[in-house]
């Protein structure tokens, strides 16, 4: 009987707590603190048949390309705040500047600019699935081509 | 006054010998010095005596066998399914139990929402959502190719120059075509 008497107030309290929890969870989904951006710089060439063991996780994606050899030159990760940007140094005097734009539907919108010295080579905006990646390739390097694996994950 | 209330509440247990020895001694000591509680004790003893007398005289006349047979019959009888269902529903959806149904439903909805948000890339058109999509590309006059490969969920942007084009910025040989 006591339980029944207190039922409306208990229900109200629980519902309020649930609503607050839902709000917090919703806010957490909408506004992650920052984005961890990782750039793997790979040299693709036909000078040998070597496949770098460190690239095992990317093998299926790299096999889309028709090169015979893949070697990881560099791997760098940085936390980038929303609406901020960070530059990653790429071999050959190039820079890759990454700027997270927004997070929606579990996808990270990322503006990516590749420059060589003062000259812009590429300016693109992509939407990467959270913890996903894409490849950017083509710039020539040491008789082959550079392939950049650009991945992003919310923090 | 508080002692009297406690003693009178404990009188039944004391008369039936159900109290611990400490409590029993305490009740006895209190009764020794409290007329009101002694009066309550006498009343209770009188009621108990009357009840015992009634049970002793009437109990002999009560036929327990038919009562027991009826109980056995009720235990053995197979009740129709709708009666079983009604009893189950009455037990399950009684007010104290159903009181938690609404908050439980809210909690379940929150969990579902959170899990769904976390794994939203797995929903519905999941295969398409695993792809990186390209909103815009500006290659500043260079050629650019975009490849999306289903099997490996690969999105590839490839920069290249025509063979006849000049490569002003580097001494590296220009890429003549996408390498895929």
Description:
The complex is a heterodimer of chains A (155) and B (180). Chain A has helices spanning 2-30, 59-62, and strands at 34-45, 69-81, 86-90, 94-104, 107-116, 119-129, 132-141, 144-154. Chain A has 155 residues and is of the alpha+beta class. Chain A folds into two domains: 1-31; 33-154, no CATH class. Chain B is mainly alpha-helical and 180 residues long. Among the domains of chain B are: 2-60, Arc Repressor Mutant, subunit A, CATH 1.10.10; 130-180, no CATH class. Helix content of chain B is 57%, strand content 11%. Chain B has helices at 2-15, 21-33, 35-59, 64-76, 81-92, 95-98, 101-118, 126-129, and strands at 133-138, 143-149, 154-160. Chain B has a two-stranded antiparallel ribbon. Chain B starts with a helix and ends in a 20-residue tail after the last strand. The chains are: A alpha+beta (155), B mainly alpha (180). Strand 6 of chain A pairs antiparallel with strand 1 (133-138) of chain B.
Keywords:
heterodimer; A: 155 residues; alpha+beta; 2 domains; 4-stranded antiparallel beta sheet; 8 strands; 54% strand; B: 180 residues; mainly alpha; Arc Repressor Mutant, subunit A; 8 helices; 3 strands
Quick rundown:
With 155 residues, chain A is α+β, with helices and mostly antiparallel strands.
What class do helices, strands and sheet pairing of chain A give? alpha+beta
- Main sheet properties of chain A: 4 strands, antiparallel
Strand order of the largest sheet of chain A: 2-1-8-7
Radius of gyration computed on alpha carbons of chain B: 44 Å
Indicate the multimeric state.
heterodimer
Global shape of chain A: elongated
